[in-house]
Sequence to fold (170 residues):
Amino acid sequence: MGVLDGKIVGFVGTDHLGKPLAKRIRTAGAKTYAFHNIPATRYDFAREGINLCESPAEVADKTSGGAIILTHSDQKQLSAMMEGENSFLEHLTSGTLVIDMGAGDPDVSKEYKKAAQEKGAIWISAPISADESKVASGDLEIQASASDNEYTLALPILNCLGKSISRVDN
Fold:
């Protein structure tokens, strides 16, 4: 049995780090969903046993009340998944934990955090900067910007992704 058995975790904005992160979460036992718009990458996810979704909105729907990890390389990617007709934010539900592990403008991320919190979701920032081999091996150092309660909620997931996890004040 994995440490995340019974948990549901989704991935949106799966940049080059998304696949190894999702694989680690699936290996830990979570039912895992992901969205990616490139067919070859979608095939790689499916081959790893990760459930594919047609849009960021579908990931939010499938993981309602669970957790969603955002990976993005810039603010443009984050905005594309957060806004629009099939947006993640439009379908986000109360009680869902959002872990933003992407790189981008912290001020814009704070705006999305506020919007998520208005829907009753929990948003923590835990940006990572690493190559795929470090992500695949779980050799990450992660600093999560969260309250004590939020950190406690996210810790089982973060422990599956990194070797050194710490909390910093929001």
